[in-house]
Write a structure and sequence with these properties.
single chain, alpha+beta, nine-stranded mixed β-sheet, 4 helices, about 30% helix, about 30% strand, globular
Amino acid sequence: DESGTLARLKSSRELFAEEISRHRGRVFHSAGDGLLAEFVSVVEAVTCAAQLQRRLGERNAARPQAQRMEFRIGINLGDVLVDGEDLLGDGVNVAARLQSLAAPGGILISGAVYDQVKDKLALGFDYLGPQAVKNIAAEVPIYRVLLSPGGRAAVRRYLPRNWLSWTRSLTATSSSQCGHGAPGPRRRHQVLQSGQ
């Protein structure tokens, strides 16, 4: 059912756009069935991801198994290089790797993200251990985000810029392809990658 799948994908994109905007984010780049968005804080990025998974779960509960759309989300805090309309660097690569490791409907975050949000959100976190990431020298500590409240109170929400990107593919594809022109400066960002 191609037309039905396309309609559900369009509806999912609209949901992503709505939540990104609600959580003070902006779409930075989109290609194919993926997008990249910027947030004002890593707390907002994780909150957005959790809300997306909750809302997608509610939609899926009302659909037959064959019509469900489940997305995987990975979030990282790291350096990226802004090159025109593209993002390059380890920050995006780690987020893409986390996304590919996440279970459908799940969220994985790096240790750097965990350190920033662990006491600021009413979410649970399950430590999964370190993970080797292609082209990254050190292993990355990984946490699974548990959508049920973890008894933590929300606190002030301010940090450097954050990024959310998602793709429908089963394996992560980095939205950081080389663009035209001279690369821009390196900046520290939170990167969120999600996919189906």
